[in-house]
């Protein structure tokens, strides 16, 4: 099940990066409305995220059962485990906000809903949650694919993700400014 979850994670990550880069260009005003392909990719990604969530819940439940059975919680030693679970839950909450904020069409024309301070804050928190979740899970995903030399490749992945996540956060800020200032 962990291997399937790792494959789902990679699929989600690829679709997320495409969605985020193209969405960032839209928000910054560098690209016009979304295509049908982008919508289909977003819904496929949503389905993969739902599967990933179900598997994550099952694995978490199994871990909690083992903790209760052993009677040893080792919370200090399992901080990374809990960071992964809590950041995943935060992503689910902020994805809901993201969908509510950015979904919409009127007579086939793409339109966005109101985007003020609370919406900006929720989207920045989405980016932070994704960064925390992905970065804390790079090593286990690499290990599940048999990649043992984490340092060089892992740091490259984290650097690329950091740049892309910064771009995404900046795109939300630019959109906020375009909506509220200009």
List keywords for this structure.
182 residues; 5 helices
Account of the protein in words:
- With 182 residues, this protein is an all-alpha fold.
- Helix content is 79%, strand content 2%.
- It has five helices and two strands; from the N terminus they run H-H-H-E-E-H-H.
- It has helices at 2-27, 36-70, 79-102, 117-144, 150-180, and strands spanning 105-106, 109-110.
- A two-stranded antiparallel ribbon has the order 1-2.
- Strand 1 (105-106) and strand 2 (109-110) form a beta hairpin.
- It is globular, with a radius of gyration of 18 Å.
- 13% of the residues are buried.
Please provide a brief summary of the model.
This protein is an all-alpha fold. It has helices at 2-27, 36-70, 79-102, 117-144, 150-180; strands at 105-106, 109-110.
Low-confidence stretches: 106-110
Physical arrangement of strands within the biggest beta sheet: 1-2
Give the SSE string: HHHEEHH
Beta strand count: 2
**Largest sheet properties:** 2 strands, antiparallel
Shape: globular
The number of distinct helices, counting runs of at least 4 residues, comes to 5
- Helix/strand structural class: mainly alpha
Question: β content, as a range?
Answer: under 5%
Give the helix proportion (percent range).
Answer: over 70%
CA-based gyration radius = 18 Å
Span of the ends, CA to CA? 50 Å
Q: Whole-number average pLDDT?
A: 85
């Amino acid at each position: 099940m962990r291997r399937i979850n790792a494959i789902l994670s990679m699929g989600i990550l690829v679709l997320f990066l495409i969605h985020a880069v193209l969405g960032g260009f839209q928000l910054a005003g560098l690209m016009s409305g979304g295509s049908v392909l982008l919508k289909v990719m977003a819904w496929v990604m949503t389905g993969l995220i739902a599967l990933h969530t179900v598997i994550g819940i099952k694995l978490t439940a199994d871990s909690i059962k083992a903790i209760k059975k052993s009677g040893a919680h080792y919370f200090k030693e399992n901080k990374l485990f809990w960071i992964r679970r809590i950041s995943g839950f935060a992503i689910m909450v902020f994805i809901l906000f993201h969908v509510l904020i950015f979904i919409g069409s009127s007579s086939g024309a793409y339109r966005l809903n109101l985007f003020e301070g609370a919406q900006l804050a929720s989207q920045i928190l989405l980016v932070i949650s994704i960064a925390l979740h992905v970065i804390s899970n790079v090593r286990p995903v690499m290990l599940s694919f048999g990649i043992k030399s984490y340092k060089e490749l892992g740091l490259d992945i984290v650097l690329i993700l950091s740049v892309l996540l910064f771009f995404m956060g900046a795109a939300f800020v630019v959109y906020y400014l375009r909506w509220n200032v200009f």
